[in-house]
Design brief:
DUF397, DUF397 domain-containing protein, alpha+beta
């Protein structure tokens, strides 16, 4: 991973018990997702803007199995 992500923010759907994900953005527009329990040291899932838009659309319309 060579991208530097900034402006990490917690998901609005995160639980108060610490089960959270954070979303950040790189300068090239790539979106990164990480688990807050790793305190910034764990792996980051990376998505292009098009991949992110597709993922969010499928989550919102419950089409993850297609």
């Amino acid at each position: 991973m060579s991208r530097h992500y900034t402006n990490w923010r917690k998901s609005r759907h995160s639980q108060p018990n610490g089960n959270c994900v954070e979303i950040g953005r790189a300068d090239d527009g790539t979106i990164g997702i990480r688990d807050t329990k790793q305190h910034g040291t764990g792996p980051i899932l990376e998505f292009t803007q098009a991949e992110w838009a597709t993922l969010v659309h499928r989550i919102r319309t419950h089409q993850l199995n297609t």
